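Protocol step 4 of 6.
Sequence for Solute carrier family 40 member (Kalanchoe fedtschenkoi) entered exactly as in the expression construct, tag removed. Do not edit the line below.
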Amino acid sequence: MIHLNSNILEGESLNLLTEETYVDNILTTLPVLTEAEQNALAANPAHPAGLYALYATYLAGCLVEQIWNFAAPASIALLHPSLQPVAVMGFFAKLAVVVGAPLMGKLMDQFPRVATYNYLSTVQTAAQLLSVAMIVHAHSSITTSSSVFLRPWFITLVCAEAVGSLCGLALGVAVERDWVVLLAGINRPTALAEANAVLSRIVLLCEIAGASFFGILLSKYDLVTCLKLAAGLMMWSLPVVVLLTWYTNKLSSGVLDRAKCSQNICNLNQDVTCLCKTSDTLVTGLDAVKQGWMEYVQQPVLPASLASVLLYFNIVLTPGGLMTAFLTQRGLHPSVIGGFSGICAFMGVAATFISASLVQRLGILKAGASGLIFQAALLSTAVAVYWTGTLSQPLPLLFFLCLIIFSRLGHMSYDVVGSQILQTGIPASKANLIGTTEVSVASLAEFVMLGVAIFANDLSNFGLLATVSILPVVGAAWMFCRWIMNPTDVQRSLFYFDPLF
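Step 5 output, structure tokens:
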């Protein structure tokens, strides 16, 4: 016999009702961030002090690299009256990147970030110093000759430039695809976008400073003296970069020491451990290259990446080695050539600010499309001006250079937009692998164009090279526009949806 007390049941029910009401009240009174507070949180980096130290590290390394990127082709152009030596150097440098970039990315995903970065910085500086020594030797011991390609100094120079390029791309990918995401925060889009813009400004400002610095030196001193000054700057910057790298990790509470293994790689079964143990994933170089290309093709934001790759076919109508050699052979003063490269970089800096306004008004996808279309239109006009045959006159030449300068606005606008699309669309555990593989594909594009430039090395073929270079730029604009016209594919590709699309 069970005797129930109705008073107890009534009391219990009343208590349950009271608790349920209390829970409802809690759920309705939970603190929710306002839109302004959410925007402030999204704009606040996860490790602001470490991010500023990263900027300083990137600045110290990038300045020397940009000085040498301008000095090397200008120095070779003064030794040989043809575009061929510069094209050969670039050809083998891109070949090294095409072959070795996926392997570099795989190794960087396996080894500690800070130690790997410092090691690659040391190797890059050593390669640059060796290149300086070879050019100084050539300038003091050889006259202009068509047999320059068989000289030991030139072969050594080509090998050193290939090693330096491979290390440089690995360092750039590590900062731009991996480190900046950790320090800014992948879930803080505004802070990440601002960090990307700052890194782009650093690169472009270093281009301005590097080209202007070496151009002014060439106008006042002989080539050997300028190269020795550049070598001294390289040796000074290496310990600064190493120290700042360590300081960046310290200010960010050791976030760079965090394991690169993504938690979602682990199998759901309890008896299976994480697949990303270092001792089990060090594979052969061929397997690493194969894996890098497979991961690249399978990435969700492949169309945006391919648009960036197509822009690399344009090796002529850019402030690069071939344009520097072309203007040098036409007799322009070194300070003018340096000023041209500097102004192009300044336009890129301006584009980092313009792109933010475009994203706010048009959305990130349409902002990228507008940048590509703007660049394609201006460069097409520049090619048309060249084929008029009036570049021997000052005014048409100035107009030709101005079109190239302003086209950098569109190029860098898409560069900023594309970087954020790739950062948010690629898993963190594969950032270096896919990033270096993308650079490898882009280098393959430059590799093909430099191969064409080796055979069409006469100045009379410059118009043909410019025409071939502009076609992929137009193709990139067309492909990206086709991609964003299909909202379903875009939403599947990105982790977020652009409300302004």
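Step 6, annotate. The radius of gyration is 27 Å.
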